[in-house]
Amino acid sequence: MQPGNDYRTGSGAPGPRYWQNRSDYQISVTLDDQQNTITGEVTITYKNNSPEVLPYLWLQLDQNAFSDTSRAAKTTPVAGGRFGNLGFAGGLTITSVQVEQDKGKFNPIPYEVTDTRMQVRLTEPVKPNGDVVKIKVAYSFKIPEYGSDRMGQLQRRDGIIYEIAQWYPRMCVYDDIEGWNVLPYLGAGEFYLDYGDYEYSVTVPWNHIVVGSGELLNPADVLTADQIKRLEQAKNSDKTIIIRGKDEVTNAGTRPKKSGTLTWKFRCQNTRDVAWASSRGFVWDAARMNLPSGKHALAQSVYPAESATNDSWNRSTEYVKGAIEFYSKYLYEYSYPVATNVAGIVGGMEYPGIIFCDHKDKKDALWGVTDHEFGHNWFPMIVGNNERKFPWMDEGFNTFINTLSTANFNNGEYERNRGTMQEIAPALFSPEEPIMTIPDVQPPRALGILAYYKPGMGLKLLREVILGPERFDFAFKSYVDRWAFKHPTPYDFFRSIEDGAGEDLGWFWRGYFYETWKLDQGIGGVKYVDGAADKGSLISIENLDKMAMPVTVEVTETNGRKGRVNLPVEIWQRGGSWTFRYNSTSPLKTVVIDPDQKLPDVNSKNNVWRGDAQ
Predict the structure, then answer these.
(1) β-pairing, 338-344 with 117-126?
(2) What is the pLDDT of residue 149?
(3) Rounded Cα–Cα distance for residues 519 and 600 (Å)
(4) What is the bridge-based pairing of β-strands 146-147 and 151-156?
(5) pLDDT tens across 295-354, in order?
(6) Are the C-beta atoms of 161 and 345 separated by less than 8 Å?
(7) Which of 334, 343, 574, 604 counts the most CB atoms within 10 A of its CB?
(8) What is the 3-state secondary structure (H, E, C) of 532-554?
(9) Which of 362, 352, 225, 339 is nearest to 286 (CA)?
(10) Is the pLDDT of residue 591 over 90?
C-alpha cells in the first residue's frame, strides 16, 4: 500500500486535508403514463472543495445504458443476462444544458455526450477551495420495461408499477485518487456519487401514489385527510398500520382529486442519490422504527393487491423495521426519515431510503432481499465507496452483516444452515479472478462470488477466527464512523481495521483479496516423546497451499481426555510445516485440525489423524 498522507492517513482515517466535492440537486419531472416517459429538469449546485481548478465538469447519464446503441448493449451477450439492455431504444434526450453566469440567469454552455458521460465545458473554470457553479439540464427519456435490474415497469391488475432510478443527470465524482471518475456505466459496476441535499418534485396522474427517498413535503396536497391520520398512527405504532388497503385501491375516494395531475414533493438531505416509485395500484402500509438515539423513523411498504397475502408483502414493513433497527445498533444510526420497500419488476435494488424488491417474493425470500437491500443503506449509502470499481466494499460487507441480522430477526426465524466454511470452500475459490477485479471485467458467473460471497465470508473469517467478535466489531464500527458520508478506498478500509483491531493483516488482505490463493491445512503426523505417550506428543501440522490462517487443533486421547491448541498465523512465517508439543497422558486417538470447520479448507481429507490407522 502507498504511504499515508495528509488526505488519507496511515491509520485508515481521513486526514486533516481530506476533501470531497459536494453536489446539491433540485429536480422537477413529470411522468406520462400514456407514453411511459419522464420529462423534466435538474439544477445542480456543484461545490469544488478540491485544491484544483476545474475547467470542465463530467456528468453521468446512466439512463443512456438503456439504449440499444450504448456500450452496455454492445457488451451484453446475445443471450442477454441480468444486466442486459437488448432491443430497447431508450436513453436520455438532452434538450438543453445551461450554466448560471449571473445570479438567476442561465446561459447555454457547450457539452459533449459520450455514451453514459457528458462533459460540460465551462466558459469560466470553477476555482478551488469552495467555489460554486450551477448547471441546469433539461431532459427526457422513455422508461424501460426492465432496466438492468435497476428500474422498470410492471403491469399489475390495478395499474402499472413504475420504479424510477438513474433518472436524472448526476455529477461524476472528482476525488484525490483519480480526479474525475469516468468509467462508463455498463451494468455490473454500480455507482460512485457525491453527497448533497436533494429537493425533487414528481408530477403524476391524479390517481397515483408516489413514494421516494427522503421526506414527503406536501402531504396535505397529495393525501386524503384519512391517509394523513393513518400515517400519524403508523408513526407511533410498532405494529403495521394500513394506510391504503387492498380493498381501497380502486376507490377514487382514496385520492384528493378526481382528474388531472398531482405533484408530490420530497426532500432528502446528506445523501448520494434519490429514487422513487409510482402507481395507481399501490397498497400501502407503515410502522414506526425505533433508533438508538431515541429518535424515530418510518418504515413503509407499497405493493400491488396481488402481493397482499398473509405470507408475502403484508410482512414487508415488519422486515424493513427489523433490518434497520438492527443495523442502526450494530453499525451507525439510520440517517433518513423514511425507509420504503417497493414491490415491482426489479428483483432487488437499493437506493437511499428506498429499495425495489420482487413482487412475487414471500417468507424467507422476501426477508432475505429486504434485509440485503436495506443493508446497503450502510454500504454504500452512508459509507460511500466506489461501486464502479470495488463492489465488494458494499456487496460483500452487506452479505456479511446480513448473516448477523438474519440471526437476530425474530429469534432466528429465517436462519438456516448454509454449510460450514469447509463445505463452501470450493465455491469461494472457484473464480480464477481475485476479489479486486473490476466488476465489468469479471465473468458474469464470477460476480456473485467475487463481489458478494467471498468478501462476505472473508469478514466472517476476520470476526470469528482471526480477530474475534469484540475486536472486529469495534474496528468495523470505527471504520463506519470514520468514513460515514465520505469516500473510502480499499486501502482506507484495510488500514482502519488494522488500526482499530491492533493487528497487521497484510497477509490476509494479500492472499484473500489481491490473490486467488487457496487454503489447505493438514496433519503431518504424531510422535511420542521418548516413545511414551504419557510423556507428551509431538504433533506436526502442514500448510500445503499458499493461503495461511491461524490454526486450531483438537486432540482426543484413548483415555477420553480431550483438549485444544490454538496457534497464531505467525507459525507459517518461515515455512509450511510446524511441530508443537502436546501434554498427552495416554496414546492419542485422533488429532483434528480445524475441528469446527471455520476455515475454507479446500481439502478436508488430510485434516484428521487417527491413532488406530497408524
Answers:
(1) unpaired
(2) 81
(3) 7
(4) antiparallel
(5) 999 999 999 999 998 889 999 999 999 999 999 999 999 999 999 999 999 999 999 999
(6) yes
(7) 343
(8) CHHHCEEEEEEECCCCCCCEEEE
(9) 339
(10) yes
8 Å CB contact between 201 and 216: no
pTM greater than 0.85 (yes/no)? yes
Report CA torsion sign: 190, 214, 361, 38: negative
Answer whether 92's CB lies under 8 Å from 103's CB: no
Classify each residue of 130-154 as buried b or exposed e, where b means 16 or more C-beta atoms within 10 Å of its C-beta: ebebbbbbebbbbbbbbbbbbbbbb
* Grid cell for residue 197: 441535499
Q: What is the residue whose three cell numbers read 436495506?
A: 374
What does the alpha-carbon distance between residue 211 and residue 557 come to, in Å, rounded to a whole number? Answer: 65
Q: In terms of Cα–Cα distance, which of 55, 41, 26 is closest to 131? A: 55
* pLDDT at 80 (0 to 100): 66
In the three-class reduction of DSSP (H, G, I as helix; E, B as strand; rest coil), residue 496 is classed as helix
- What would the grid cell of residue 331 be? 453499525
Burial class (CB in 10 A: 0-12, 13-18, 19+), 492: buried
Quickly count: other Cβ atoms within 10 Å of residue 295's Cβ. 12
Burial label, 505 (beta-carbon count in 10 A; 0-12, 13-18, 19+): middle
- The pLDDT confidence band at residue 82, using thresholds 50, 70 and 90, is low
Beta strands in 82-130 (DSSP E): 92-102, 105-108, 111-114, 117-126
CA 484 to chain centre: 14
Q: Do residues 7 and 19 touch, judged by C-beta distance below 8 A?
A: yes
Distances (CA, A) of 95 to 59, 122, 140, 278, 349: 15, 18, 8, 25, 29
Residue showing cell 483519480: 178
Cell reading at 320 = 424493513
Query: pLDDT tens, 213-224?
Result: 999 999 999 999
Average pLDDT, the chain: 96
* CB burial string 43-78: b at 16+ within 10 A, e below: bbbbbbebeeebeebbbbbbbbbbbeebbbbeebee
Q: Which residue in the block uniquely carries the three cell numbers 446539491?
A: 24
What cell was used for 132? 460554486
